[in-house]
Amino acid sequence: MEHFKLDLDSDGILLITFDSPGRTMNVLSNAVVAEMGEIVEKISGDDDIKGAVITSGKSAFCAGADLSEMGSNITALTQLMKTDPEAAKKQLFDNVFSLNKTFRAMETCGKPVAAAVNGLALGGGFEIALACHGRFAASDNPKLKLGLPEALVGLLPGAGGTQRLPRLIGLMNAAPILMQGKQLKASEAQAMGILQGTAPQAELVATAKQWVKDNPKAKAPWDQDRFKFPGGAPYTAQGFQMFAGANAMIRKETYGNYPAMANILKAVYEGSLVPMDAALRIESRYFADLFLRPESRNMIRSLFVSKQAIEKGEGRPEGQEKADVKSVGVIGAGFMGAGVAYVSAMAGMDVVLIDRDQEGADKGKQFTIDEQTKRVKRNKTTQEKADAIIGRITATTDYAALKNVDLIVEAVFEDSALKAKITELGEAVIGESAVFGSNTSTIPITDLAKASKRPENFIGIHFFSPVHKMMLVEIIKGEKTSDYAISRAIDFVTRIRKVPIVVEDTRGFYANRCVMRYIGEGYNMLSEGVKPALIENAGKMAGMPVGPLALQDEVAIDLAYKVLKQTKADLGNDYKSGTMEAVIVPMVEKYDRLGRKNGKGFYVYNGKEKHLWEELDQFAVNGVLEDQPNVQEVKDRLMYAQAVEAARTFDEGIIHDPREADLGSIFGWGFAPFTGGAVSFIDTIGAKRFVKRADELRDAYGEQFEVPSLLRDMAEKGETFYGKFGRKEAA
Fold it and tell me: Do 427 and 518 belong to one domain?
């Protein structure tokens, strides 16, 4: 066999070692499932085999389904759906049910099977263990986690997870694992009754084998007579309470945008009312239903396939090789600079953190000290490892310390003159091959590069706040930026485990241009007299993490004020004032409402509690509308404003890859993840329908909804962004 090694010992216990060649992680591909079927037949039919233990030959047990292969299957099935929908559905169900069929055959083979889980076991990997009669995990592997994260990519556990886990630990305990993707440590899983036990790595297989020998007639609890659901079945008082609450919770959390949550709940409920064999067919039916939905297709493509590819550096210019960025200089030790220093040190790099005075530099380093102290207290790391990370950061005012760094990240205020001064000071000491990156959020890189003596090595590296939590980094090419500089920036961003997208130079680049359309449309509606609560709730109902006014509070109103002033100064007579300026200027100058940072913005903050500021109606130019628009109208305005701007960036050649556009929208400003991103949002609606609706919004509300000629042309030709601009394998 290619993916499994079999070893039968003298006691008749078959050790099955899962070890796919050429891969760092075991996954459940079609070839793996086929081999598992052969192994189950061997266990069942060979009298010399008294039982079996499944383990892994890698540091992790199994990471679940092969989502890359799954993405290819989606493309093929989508094509078949156009010509023969019934054949496509049958083919999909048969494919999905094959894994359930294999696991069920193992579960009912008449011989005890145990899992020796030596490392990470997620999704289908965890479901392998659940289908075994006994489950044991390594007690001394801190990276070991058990979980079912399928809901996070728009799917449900499709290999028995929705049926076995609730029967094992009860409906209430299973809910957060199934619907929120909660992951468990070995000790937690044992305490919940998922595992029979734990053992040190060196003794794990022997422990599992002993259990198999001691339990020759082992059966799953649900295959035994008089089985009862732990904590009560759905039709009991306890079970009914759980389902009533879960329905309300799902609606509150998802606004109906994530069908995976509802399908998981349906599969659990319906499956719990019938025997296991019927329950597994129910699960496969709901999995197949999700597989054909655009939400699942888009989420798998963007959140897994595309993300993985971009994280591996697929945006690297041709002819450039990957290199190791070992040291970085960070100039500006404020919140952003401190965050960059922290993630760089966490990634193993040496960091020189510079500020105008030692007190400021030390304060920036203190951020890392504080974060590592929290991690030690939460048992996320050891004091020794924390000290090593802190020790990688040199806090100083001396620019000479930058002499040997591979890359600079300048993170001072959004002031062109200040950034020019910093560029000169930094370039005076760094080596010729070092790359100078500016963390500007809006100022064009070509303008900033005018202060550089080496514009070919000058680049934009735009982080999002807070740096240690936000996944996206925009890499911005100036007019003279070289492929070498782009490649080194990608090396740096991938090393700190962020998602790099490469964009051309323009004011606001990609993410800020688009997100400001979201915030700006919130300002427009506020000015028109739409009630603030309707604006905010519609944003969340559309799938955004927060409403546009709350988002402005988070990024700081005074930052928008400073950007407005800088933009006005840069554009001069070409600057056009709008509703945003009419709101932001008085918010800052008249009311000192700076956002969450000072507890006063569009919201009033009291600890974790907040409510909309009662005086926002003053910004409605003609008073609050007596007849408020319907929710769908507000949702469309907020979502189309962003998507139209994303299309404009393609039209202007600012961004070139639909994968990067989608990832940038999701990880940069939280564009509704269930859509797959701003570009997938347009593709799913269809260019023709999208343009028609955008034209309606333009005629009603203004030129912000005017689609670019590129998109209008695509609508006429029936094209999609992924079809026109995407790599063939990503289409």
Answer: no
- CATH number for the domain spanning 188: value is 3.90.226.10
> Please, are residues 96 and 291 in contact by the beta-carbon 8 Å criterion?
yes
Going by DSSP bridges, is the β-strand pair 603-606/609-612 parallel, antiparallel, or unpaired? Answer: antiparallel
pLDDT of residue 730: 40
Q: Is 683 exposed, middle or buried (0-12, 13-18, 19+ CB in 10 A)?
A: buried
In a domain, 408, yes or no: yes
Nearest Cα to Cα of residue 566 among 442, 729, 394: 442
Where do runs of H (alpha helix) occur along 255-357?
Answer: 259-272, 276-291, 294-300, 307-311, 335-346
CB atoms within 10 A of CB 666: 26
Average pLDDT over residues 454-463: 96
Q: Please give the order of strands across the beta sheet that includes 121-122.
A: 121-122, 146-147, 183-184
Q: How far apart, in whole angstroms, are the C-alpha atoms of residue 299 and residue 293?
A: 10
Hey, what amino acid is at 549?
L
| DSSP letter (8 states) at residue 100 | H
Chain-centroid distance, C-alpha 717 = 33
pLDDT, mean of residues 30-47:
94
Q: Are strands 609-612 and 435-438 parallel, antiparallel or unpaired?
A: unpaired
Active site residues: 462
Domain assignment of residue 559, yes or no: yes
In a domain, 314, yes or no: no
Can you give the pTM of this predicted structure? 0.86
* Average pLDDT taken over every residue of the chain: 92
Contacts of 486 (CB under 8 A, 6+ apart): 316, 317, 320, 459, 475, 477, 502
Question: What is each CA distance from 33 to 56, 325, 601, 688, in whole angstroms?
Answer: 15, 40, 55, 41
d(CA 614, CA 616): 6
What length is written for the chain? 731
Number of domains into which the chain is organized: 3
pLDDT exceeding 70 applies to what percent of the chain?
A: 99
Collapsing DSSP to helix, strand or coil, 473 comes out as strand
E-assigned strand segments in 170-275: 183-184, 197-199
Strand pairing category for 435-438 and 458-463: parallel
501 lies in the same domain as 533: no
Q: 46 and 25, same structural domain? A: yes
Give the whole-angstrom CA distance, residue 540 versus residue 596.
18
Burial string for 279-316 (b: 16+ CB within 10 Å, else e) reads bbebbbbbbbbbbbbbbbbbbbbbbbbbbebbbeebbb
What is the DSSP annotation of 569-613? HHHGGG----HHHHHHHHHHHTT---BGGGTBSSEEEETTEEEE-
CB 585 within 8 A of CB 561: yes
Would you say residue 575 has pLDDT above 90?
no
Task: Report the C-alpha gap between 107 and 113 in whole angstroms.
Answer: 8
Query: How far, in Å, CA of 152 to CA of 181, rounded?
Result: 7
Instruction: Compute CA 513 distance to the chain's CA centroid, rounded to the nearest angstrom.
Output: 21
Condensed to tens digits (0 to 9), the pLDDT of residues 502-523 reads 999 987 889 989 999 999 999 9
| Tens-digit pLDDT profile for residues 518-540 | 999 999 999 999 999 999 999 99
CATH of residue 679's domain is 1.10.1040.50
**pLDDT for the residue 368:** 97
Please report the pLDDT score of residue 727 as a whole number.
67
Separation of alpha carbons 335 and 355, rounded Å: 12
Contact 641, 705 (CB under 8 A): yes
Q: Are residues 268 and 394 in the same domain?
A: no
Range of the domain at 96: 4-292
- 506, 534, 558: which is the final residue of a domain? 506
The mean pLDDT value for 567-577 works out to 80
- If you search the block for the tokens 């007596």, which residue do you land on? 626
Q: Which residue has the tokens 């559905």?
A: 89
Q: Where are the alpha helices (DSSP H) in 304-380?
A: 307-311, 335-346, 358-377
Q: Which residue has the tokens 């002819």?
A: 319
Give the other-Cβ count within 10 Å of 192's Cβ. 18
